[in-house]
Amino acid sequence: MKMTLSRLRYKASLNKQGYEELSNGNIINTDEKLFDFWFGYYKQSLSQSVSSNAFDFLKSKVTIVTKHNNSFVEAMNDTNYTITLPAPNSNTYNVASINPDYEVNGYDTIVLSAVGGSSDSSTTNTNNSND
After folding, report:
1. The model's pTM
2. What phi and psi, each to the nearest 5 degrees, are found at residue 63?
3. Which residue, 107, 63, 68, 66, is CA-closest to 89?
4. For residue 28, what are the β-bridge partners?
5. Pairing relationship of beta strands 61-67 and 81-84 according to DSSP bridges
């Protein structure tokens, strides 16, 4: 994928959910921020969207592009990892699918699914753009 660093102009964070036991014996969920990263929203043409035949899949999804990091690949297989995006999509997401680029200076295309939403990973195409 041909990309420039200037396209990565939004900052998000990768988190890992855990738990903490309180002194009274109750257990609460916690979010530990692992690291911040820069990303850009992925654009797709209308013909690509129509050919994907995945309108139901796309409803609660956001697609982003970021520099390759193996943590994103690991996050796809573990729902304890979440990604928090800035406004206007300031929600918490799980990695629904990823198209990793293992080349030097590679960029990953990541489809995010809202936490609590479906995470069908059969497609990596979406039509969300805020660039």
Report:
1. 0.67
2. -115, 130
3. 63
4. 20
5. unpaired
